[in-house]
Amino acid sequence: MRLPILFEIQVFRKTGALEKLLYFFTCYLARVKSMEVLEAMKNRRSIRKYKSTPVSEEMLKDILSAARTAPSGVNAQPWKLIIVTDEEIKRKLVQACNGQKFIAEAPLIIVACGFPDDAYATIGGYMNGYVIDVTIAMDHLILAATSSGLGTCWIGAFKEEKVKEILGIPEDVKVVALTPLGYPDEAPSKRSRKDLAELVCYDKFE
C-alpha cells in the first residue's frame, strides 16, 4: 500500500533527501536552460526563404520581451523596435534594402532603431553606445526567435534615409538593423567559423 504523500515528504526531510533532491533538480533545470541557449546559438541561421504562416501574438510578445531584457550602458535602453506587418510597407522596405525580396516573404519585419541622445555617450572615451545596445537587444531577439522555431536574417544592407521616410522615423533616431521574422522555408547548412585560437588570446594582445 502506498504511503500518504505528506508522510513521504516528512521521511525525506528527516533524512535530508528532500533538500538534496530539490538542489539537484534546480541544478538540472539550470543546465537545461543553459543548453537551450547554447543550442539556439549553434542552430541559428540566416534565413532567406519564409513560409506565409503567421506568427502568433503570444510568441511575438515572448520574443520581444527577450529583447527588452537586454543589458545596456547605464541601463538607458536606447532603442525602439518597429513591427511591420502591412504588405505595402513591407514591399517598400524591400526597395530600401537594395531589393532583397525575401524580406517581404516573412509575415513580419522588425526594424531596430537607436537613440544616440539617450545612450551612454563615451564608451571607451570615444564612442556612443547606441549601436552596441541595439545590437545586444537584437541578438536577444534573434536567439529567442531561434528557440521558438522561427527564422531571422540580420539586414545591414539598407538605405537609412529611405527606411526613415517609409516609417516616419524622426531625424534624431538612427536605424541600426532590420530582420524578417517568420517560419523558415529552408534549412541552410552551417557556415564555417574561425578557430577559437585565432579569436582568443590571454593576458595581452597577440
Gist?
The chain has 206 residues and is an alpha+beta fold. Helices cover 44% and strands 12% of the residues. The protein has helices spanning 5-15, 17-43, 57-68, 87-96, 130-147, 160-167, 196-199, and strands at 79-84, 108-114, 151-152, 174-182.
Helix/strand layout:
Layout: H1 5-15, H2 17-43, H3 57-68, E1 79-84, H4 87-96, E2 108-114, H5 130-147, E3 151-152, H6 160-167, E4 174-182, H7 196-199
Antiparallel strand pairs: 1-2, 2-4, 3-4
Helix pairs in contact: 2-5, 3-5, 4-6
What key phrases describe this protein's structure?
single chain, 4 strands, 206 residues, alpha+beta
Can you describe this structure?
Helices cover 44% and strands 12% of the residues. A 4-stranded antiparallel beta sheet has the order 1-2-4-3, sandwiched between helices. The protein has 206 residues and is α+β, with helices and mostly antiparallel strands. It has helices at 5-15, 17-43, 57-68, 87-96, 130-147, 160-167, 196-199; strands at residues 79-84, 108-114, 151-152, 174-182. Mean pLDDT is 89; it is low at 5-9. Helix 2 crosses helix 5 (130-147), helix 3 (57-68) runs antiparallel to helix 5 and helix 4 (87-96) runs antiparallel to helix 6 (160-167). It has 2 domains: 5-43; 57-182, 3-Layer(aba) Sandwich (NADH Oxidase).
